[in-house]
Amino acid sequence: MSAKFDLIVFDWDGTLMDSAARIVASLQAAGRDVGLPRRSDAECRNIIGLGLQEAINTLHPTMEPHHAPHFVERYRHHFLVACPLPEVLFDGVHEILQALERRRLWLGVATGKSRQGLDRALDHTGCKRYFHATRCADETCSKPDPMMLREIMADLDVAPERTLMVGDTEYDLEMARRAGAEALAVTYGAHEPQRLESFAPLACVDSATALATWLADNA
């Protein structure tokens, strides 16, 4: 069976890495450190996928701009150092990436993480070798702006109709739609299935095992 896609681009947090709880706890801790009102777990999960500045603006729209660097510093401290919650790949992710590598498909990452954060995660998990192009929110426009995905497609000279975006948030799916690419939703991450289904992805899969099966059969 010939491949339908030449390029598969993955979101990172909530799609390949089980980090949502750590992100939520770190956002709440940073807000506490800066003296801001506590935001609920649901409010924090809602902004996963956005760049950090866009996330701050959404969670704390009345925060004084000069407090933003302090919030960013405290968030990074909690996420990278202080938070006791795990940050691990979902079971089966290495096997998924290895299978796609064997098929000689282009692979990319489009993430709301910073470049420092993504490089740290790629090195820590041993996944760096799989990906041919990556973009982070501090290098280009934040999701759902399509620029991040368009830049990856341009880097690898792949047309939108030959590109699949895999993600766990509406920001991933909207970015794909605006870039002219197809999208596959995973429902085990940040946003609930009903929210993802409203963007009409090719499918919604509920586990990394189901993701592996779908990609083997349809990509």
Helical percentage: 40-55%
Output the CATH topology of the largest domain.
Rossmann fold
Q: Output the structural class.
A: alpha/beta
Given as residue ranges, the uncertain stretches (5+ residues, pLDDT < 50) are none
**H and E string:** EEHHHHEHEHEHEHEHEH
Name the overall outline: globular
Q: How many β-strands, per DSSP?
A: 8
Radius of gyration: 17 Å
For the largest beta-sheet, the strand count, sense and barrel status come to:
6 strands, parallel
Pfam families: HAD_2
InterPro entries: HAD-like_hydrolase_sf, HAD-like_sf, HAD-SF_hydro_IA, HAD_2, HAD_sf, PGP-like_dom2
Keywords: Hydrolase
GO molecular function, one term: phosphoglycolate phosphatase activity
Structural descriptors:
DNA polymerase, domain 1, Rossmann fold, 219 residues, 2 domains, single chain, 46% helix, six-stranded parallel sheet, alpha/beta
Descriptive notes:
This protein folds into two domains: 7-18 and 88-218, Rossmann fold (3-Layer(aba) Sandwich); 20-82, DNA polymerase, domain 1, CATH 1.10.150. 46% of the residues lie in helices and 14% in strands. It has ten helices and eight strands. Strands 5-4-1-6-7-8 form a six-stranded parallel beta sheet, sandwiched between helices. Strands 2-3 form a two-stranded antiparallel sheet.
Short description:
Pfam families: HAD_2 (PF13419). This protein has 219 residues and is α/β, with parallel strands linked by helices. The protein has helices at residues 20-34, 41-46, 52-59, 68-82, 93-102, 115-125, 147-156, 170-179, 193-197, 208-218; strands at residues 7-10, 17-18, 88-89, 106-111, 133-136, 163-167, 182-186, 204-205.
